[in-house]
Amino acid sequence: QLVESGGGLVKPGGSLRLSCAASGFTFSDFSMNWVRQAPGKGLEWVSSISSSSSHIYYADSVKGRFTISRDNAKNSLYLQMNSLRAEDAAVYYCARDMGGGYSDEYYYFYGMDVWGQGTTVTVSS
Amino acid sequence: IVMTQSPLSLPVTPGEPASISCRSSQSLLHSNGYNYLDWYLQRPGQSPQLLIFLGSNRPSGVPDRFSGSGSGTEFTLKISRVGAEDVGVYYCMQALRTPTFGGGTRVEIK
Predict the structure, then answer these.
(1) Model confidence over A75-111: pLDDT tens digits?
(2) What is the largest CA-CA distance in chain A?
(3) Contacts of A104 (CB under 8 A, 6+ apart)
(4) Which of A57, A108, A117 has its CB closest to that of B47?
(5) CB pair distance less than 8 Å for B38 and A110
(6) pLDDT mean by block of 10 residues, chain A; 125 residues
(7) Are the Cβ atoms of B53 and A116 closer than 8 angstroms?
(8) Cβ atoms within 10 Å of A17's Cβ, excluding its own
(9) Are the C-beta atoms of residues B78 and B69 closer than 8 Å to each other?
(10) Smallest Cα distance from A101 to chain B, Å
């Protein structure tokens, strides 16, 4: 099970830190992801982090503003979001993937099989 | 990689089959022989759910009326007999490169 928290209302330019608490599986064995969904829109991948945090990837739309991290001792995943924009408003989901591999630039993976319920981020003045 | 789904909307009669197409702008076939293409269903008001991974594999717990096929740039999700519980938006997603989702196909009951 995955449970997100930390969403809320923030002004443009502000910051927010999302958390995702994992239970029921060995968190440290899995890579994790953040996926978001703007109101009335489709799904957008945001970021991935490997099980040991050695590999981290971001969508171009958030690179330099968002930071993904994890604490395996606390079974928790995080997303630090800075310099927030109106277009960052969305429901943010954390999701576990089933596995994959690494090339120079990419983490190729498959099967996000466990998802949280999502946490809503609203960016407005 | 751009993912294109069709149709955008799919009205179906309960008990009848349904099919959704997904095309990618580049091949999703890795040198390891796997296609990095997944299918997800997002029921109204719910989080997405994995239906098919690596093009044609069904996770445990997903009914066998769902099947995935295809390779390279052309993929298909088939539902052999649509039920009321299958209503929602279906997304294909590639994760061979920077992950991208298709625009979604909304399945509704006639």
Answers:
(1) 999 999 999 999 999 999 999 999 999 887 889 999 9
(2) 41
(3) none
(4) A117
(5) yes
(6) 98 98 98 98 97 94 98 98 98 96 87 97 97
(7) no
(8) 13
(9) yes
(10) 10
Residue with tokens 């064995």: A29
Contact state of B53 with A111 under an 8 Å Cβ cutoff: yes
**Best of B89, B98, B101, B105 to mutate (most A CBs within 10 Å, chain A):** B98
Q: Which amino acid is at A57?
A: Y
What type of residue is A58? Answer: Y
> What part of B 15-34 touches A (C-beta under 8 Å)?
30, 32, 34
Tokens of A33: 């992801």
pLDDT for residue B106: 98
Strands (E), chain A: 2-5, 8-10, 16-22, 32-37, 43-49, 56-58, 66-71, 76-81, 90-102, 107-115, 119-123
Contacts B50 to A, Cβ<8 Å: 111-113
Q: Do B48 and A112 touch (CB under 8 A)?
A: yes
Q: Which two tokens stand for residue A1?
A: 């099970």
Which tens digit of pLDDT belongs to each residue from B19-47?
999 999 999 999 999 999 999 999 999 99
